[in-house]
Design brief:
The protein has one helix spanning 44-55, and strands spanning 8-15, 19-26, 32-37, 68-72, 79-83. By secondary structure, it is mainly β. Strands 1-2-3-5-4 form a five-stranded antiparallel β-sheet, covered by helices on one side.
Length: 87
Amino acid sequence: MTTGPAQDTLETLWDDGEFVLSRVRHGADRPTLSVRLAAAQPTAASLARLEHAHALRNDLDAAWAARPTDLIGPRGRLSLRLEDPGG
């Protein structure tokens, strides 16, 4: 699936009904991972889980974790961007 600029592609890796994990390829740049809310009207608990994962970014080691880099979008359509370790 192509999204945004023509060179960006989005590959869904996992969808559990609450969150959708995707690999985002930005042309020739290194891909990133994106965790977005699956529901059009997410629960407060789902939003809190994304915010909590982002808050842990400095405590995670890239050797064993896909580290969060930033939160993107308005609160109701919030997504979490992570480093993509590949694999």
